[in-house]
Design goal:
Layout (H helix, E strand, L loop, with lengths): L2 E8 L2 E6 L2 E7 L1 H10 L4 E6 L2 H4 L5 H8 L6 E4 L5 H10 L3 E4 L1 H5 L2 H10 L4 E11 L2 E6 L4 E2 L4 H10 L4 E6 L11 H8 L6 E4 L5 H10 L3 E5 L1 H4 L5 H5 L3
Parallel strand pairs: 1-4, 1-12, 4-5, 5-6, 6-7, 7-10, 10-11, 11-12
Antiparallel strand pairs: 1-2, 2-3, 7-8, 8-9
Helix pairs in contact: 1-3, 3-4
Length: 240
């Protein structure tokens, strides 16, 4: 089970909010990535929060600097809109790319990307918001816009298109430090046949322990709890 740190980046700063809103600066991405690497993190995910919205890519230089000093898998997301973007990300030092908004608007791009680079390189990044007790909807542009797509239908589709992994963020749980959205995870767990990374809500060791004990194909992605030092990576690694 992988423990993954998440760095949401805007204008060269790591930021954090609640429900993907009210974003505040929390640090330097290069320094934080190195800190988490030194503390034993298994992987790092870096998401450009505004790249898709403004149709630009700003993180290639940061990824290049980060990758000079860390030697674990690095995933870059935000603003990936072409095969060339993926090449640039990989050439900058990323091992994988996470694609959300452009894939929703152009689903066939996922097929093109996995055919070109292999499924292990392509992560389907999904921002899910709850509509009612049994229904969630993927959002795009860092939780800014609805898609009117059913989450279950979209998860089935991205798997059919060849993605090698799913990074699933609960917008409702994000930044609240009240635990993962277990209803969301339980809703999708039985239909997912690729590795899942669940993001949003971890605040204490018990949140991690529940996932490790009950879900074989799920890893955790952590932002606030690491940024604000609510939890230590080594404490999670010591959980049996």
């Amino acid at each position: 089970m992988r423990i993954i740190s998440r760095l949401d980046i805007k204008n060269d700063f790591v930021i954090k909010g609640i429900n993907l809103e009210g974003l505040r600066k929390v640090g330097n991405p290069i320094k934080l990535a190195k800190k988490y690497y030194d503390n034993g993190i298994d992987e790092i995910v870096m998401i450009d929060c505004v790249a898709s919205l403004y149709k630009r890519n700003n993180l290639f230089n940061i990824v290049e600097e980060v990758s000079k000093n860390i030697f674990i898998p690095l995933t870059l997301g935000g603003g990936i809109r072409s095969i060339l973007d993926i090449k640039k990300a990989l050439n900058s030092g990323a091992d994988k790319v996470a694609i959300n908004s452009f894939a929703i608007e152009n689903p066939i791009f996922l097929r093109e990307a996995t055919n070109f680079f292999g499924s292990s390189t392509i992560v389907s990044y999904i921002e899910a918001k709850k509509l009612n007790e049994n229904k969630w909807e993927p959002y795009k542009y860092y939780g800014r816009e609805r898609t009117n797509i059913d989450l279950i239908d979209w998860i089935k589709k991205v798997q059919d298109l060849g993605c090698g992994e799913i990074l699933l963020t609960s917008i409702d749980a994000d930044g609240l430090n009240r635990g993962f959205d277990m209803n969301l995870l339980n809703k999708i767990n039985n239909i997912v046949n690729v590795p899942i990374i669940i993001s949003g809500g971890l605040s204490r060791a018990d949140d991690f322990k529940i996932i490790k004990k009950n879900y074989k194909n799920v890893s955790v992605c952590i932002a606030s709890a690491l940024h604000y030092e609510k939890i230590k990576i080594q404490d999670l690694k010591n959980i049996k």
